[in-house]
Amino acid sequence: xxxxxxxxxxxxxxxxxxxxxxxxxxxxxxxxxxxxxxxxxxxxxxxxxxxxxxxxxxxxxxxxxxxxxxxxxxxxxxxxxxxxxxxxxxxxxxxxxxxxxxxxxxxxxxxxxxxxxxxxxxxxxxxxxxxxxxxxxxxxxxxxxxxxxxxxxxxxxxxxxxxxxxxxxxxxxxxxxxxxxxxxxxxxxxxxxxxxxxxxxxxxxxxxxxxxxxxxxxxxxxxxxxxxxxxxxxxxxxxxxxxxxxxxxxxxxxxxxxxxxxxxxxxxxxxxxxxxxxxxxxxxxxxxxxxxxxxxxxxxxxxxxxxxxxxxxxxxxxxxxxxxxxx
Amino acid sequence: xxxxxxxxxxxxxxxxxxxxxxxxxxxxxxxxxxxxxxxxxxxxxxxxxxxxxxxxxxxxxxxxxxxxxxxxxxxxxxxxxxxxxxxxxxxxxxxxxxxxxxxxxxxxxxxxxxxxxxxxxxxxxxxxxxxxxxxxxxxxxxxxxxxxxxxxxxxxxxxxxxxxxxxxxxxxxxxxxxxxxxxxxxxxxxxxxxxxxxxxxxxxxxxxxxxxxxxxxxxxxxxxxxxxxxxxxxxxxxxxxxxxxxxxxxxxxxxxxxxxxxxxxxxxxxxxxxxxxxxxxxxxxxxxxxxxx
Lengths: 327, 293
Fold this sequence. Notes:
A: two-stranded antiparallel ribbon, 14 helices, B: mainly alpha, flat
C-alpha cells in the first residue's frame, strides 16, 4: 500500500523489473532504440545547421557578406559576378506581405466564426473544408494562380480601366507571372493555419470573462472585439507570425506564379523572384558542387533558415505568454 | 412616464447594427474559404477530367505529344516515394514519441530539448530539408539522385509531424491503463506494446496517413535532391532515378504549348484524388475510434 500511495506505482516498480533477467535486457534494448529514434530529430537539426554553414563558407570566401546582404543586383553571369540577395528578399517580402493581407484578416474572422458563432453542424463542414484546403499541394495552387487568378486580375483591371478611364494610370499591369497572384494563392494556403490557431487561442479564453461583459450589456460583437480578442491576442499574433513564416518558406506556388526574374520588384503586377524560387531554379539545372551558383543556394538557404527560425521562436514566445495569462 | 432603465440606451440600434454586421463579416470570410476550395476543385475537374483515363494512367509522360502523354512513371514514382518514406518514418517516429512520452514520463532537460527541437524542425521550410538531403544523402552517402535519397529526405521532413501526432495520441491514453498493467508485474515495454500502443493506434494511424499525404504533395525538397520532370522509364530498384506527380505537373505547367494544360489538370486530379482517399480513410478511422470509446 505504501508503494501505491507514495509516488507513482510505476516508478516504484522499476526496482522490481531490474531483477527480471531477459525482460530486463529487452527493456533496455527497446529503450535504447526509442532513445536513438528520438535523437534523430536532433541529428536532423544539427545536420541542417552544419550543412548550411559549411557549404556557405566557401561562398563567403569569394563574396563579401556585406555585398550579399546589401547588394541590389543578382547577376552571377556578369564578368564580375554579383550576388546581391536584396532582389530575392524584396520578392519574398512582397509575396509574403501580400499573402498576409489575405490570410490574416480572413483567417482571424474564420477563427472567430468557428469559435464564437458557428453552429456545431456548420463547424463539422467548415473544419474539414479548411483541412482539405490546407492539404492541397502547393503545385496545385501554382496552377490555380496561373490559370485562374492572373487572368482574373488582368480581366478585372481591364474592365475597371474601361469603366473609369481616370483609374487606368493607377492600375498595375499584370504580367503572366506576377507577385499579386502568388501572394493571393499563398494567402489562401496559409489561411487554414491562421483560422485554426486563432480558433484555439480564442476558445481558450475563459467563459466567465465573456459572461461578465454580457452582464454589463455588451453586444456579442463588442464582447469579441473588446474582451475575447484582446485576451487571446498573444495566440492570435503567434498565428500571424507562423503564417508569414510559412509564406516565406513557400516554394512551389511562388516558383510557378511569381516568376523567375531576380530584379528589384517594380510593382505588384510585375514578375519577381523569391529566395525559394531561386533555390529551385539552380537545383533544376545540373550545377556541380564547386560552382559558385551551387554555393549561393546554401547562402540563400541559410538566410531562409535563420529568418524562419527567428519567426518561429517569436511565435512560441507569444504562445508561452498566452499560457501564462490563461493560468 | 417609463422608468429611466426601460428607456432605450442611446446608440443601441447602431450597436445592434454593428453586431449584425460583424457576424455577417465572419460568416462571409468563412464562405470565402469554402468558395475558394470549391472553385479550385471545380477548375481542376473541368480542365482535367477529359484526360483522365486508363490510357492516361498507363502511358509515359511526354513533352511533345500533349494528347497522348500519360502519368505512369510519375504516379509509380510518387507511390514508391510515399511507401518508402512511410517505411522509414513510421518506426522512427513512433519509437521517438514512445521515448518522449512513455519512457521518460518525468521531463528532464534532455527531453525538453528534443521537444523544442522537434517543434522548431516542424517550422523549417521544406526546401531546406532538400538541401540537407542533397548534401547528406545524395553526395555524402553517395546515394545519388535516387528514390532512396528522396524518401530519406522526405522522411526527415515528415518526422516531426509523425512524432507530434503520436505523442498527442499517447497522451490521450488514460494513465489508469498503464498503472493497471504495471500492477500486474509487466515491464514498461510490455505495457507499452500490449496496452498503450493498441489504445493509441487510431490517433497514430490518422497522423501517419496525413504524413503520407504530405509526402506525395511535397515537391520542393525532391527537386533539390534531384528528381526531374521528365522520366520515361519505370524505376525498378530504390537506387534508380525517378520522378513524382507534382514534378510532372510542374513540368507541364511550364510548357509553352497550352495543349499541355489538360494533362497538367488531369495529373492534379489524380493527385488530389489520392489525397482525398487518404484523408477519407483518416476521417473514417477517427469516426470509428470515437464510437468504440
